[in-house]
Amino acid sequence: MRKNLLILIPGLLCDHALWQHQAAALAQISECIVTDKHMHYETIGRIAEAVVADAPDRFALAGLSMGGYIALEICRRYDKRVERLALIDTSARADTADQTEKRHKLIDLCRQGKFEDVNEMLFSVLVHPDRVTDKALKRQIVDMANRIGPEVFIRQQQAIMGRSNQVPCLRDITCPTLIVCGEQDQITPLECSKEMASLIQESQLEVIADCGHMTSMEKPEKVSAILFEWLTNR
Ligand code: MLT
What we know:
Bound molecules: D-malate
CATH topology: Rossmann fold
CATH class: Alpha Beta
Shape: globular
CATH architecture: 3-Layer(aba) Sandwich
Oligomer: single chain
CATH superfamily: Alpha/Beta hydrolase fold, catalytic domain
């Protein structure tokens, strides 16, 4: 029997390694594909179109952070095609002026050849404070960022800055939706997940204790188990 497709969408400066544990753990129940379309286009809308262009009629979708921004855009445009949705450490809100200003500063640093500094700054807020000294985790995250590189980082930041406010669209999402958030997520704080859970009809919120923004890498077993349950329940 053919397995249902699960499309996994990475976040900013992330690739297949973000989902390594989950793709392996879920392979027995789903055909898992990690898209790389989030690297190639300047707008969230164009990325959403590109992800769906390669997909079958119906599919499950999981996105972390920027991946969640893309997943929400896919739901808004192609709601009938999304069987199940997982929104992980993400938000439905558009950027604030302050967030956009910070992104411009990071882009300027990249243009000055300081991509390594950008990585250092980002890492300090990406993970739970207790994991900032975890060398193995840092290596995995910095290796991903280096594979992506500054040019793609700038393109991704442009797409992120231009994204629209999806909060008014949340009530239109009708598929079973799992929302996951690290309790100490500093990039897309828990209140953003609570907001999505309060507005999406068939949603379930899972909060991961002692965990920052990079849940799928900080607590890989826990996230894989929650996704397994979401894919096999109902
Ligand atoms: C991400 O992890 O995709 C980004 O940090 C999201 C963002 O900067 O808004």
